[in-house]
Design goal:
- The chain is an all-alpha fold and about 70 residues long.
- It has 3 helices and no strands.
- The protein is flat and about 35 Å long.
- The termini are far apart.
Length: about 70
């Protein structure tokens, strides 16, 4: 299957076509994708495990409060 980064990019492109490049959700989604990839890494979507997702949740809890805001 596709890498998470590829699947996310395809979804973002679909949203952009449907709502336009200035759609607020796109900035949020792109930022969250960057954080996810930095913390968990990029691999085929079907290979992520509960442990990967729990590690992401655990790591996000230790990020500064403003790190989840759009840049």
């Amino acid at each position: 299957g596709p890498l998470f980064s590829e699947a996310s990019k395809a979804y973002q492109e679909k949203l952009e076509k449907a709502h336009g490049a200035t759609y607020d959700e796109l900035k949020y989604l792109r930022h969250r994708t960057e954080i996810f990839l930095a913390l968990v890494g990029d691999k085929p979507v079907e290979l992520y495990t509960e442990d990967d997702l729990q590690a992401f949740i655990d790591e996000v809890a230790f990020l500064p409060a403003n790190s989840s805001k759009d840049k």
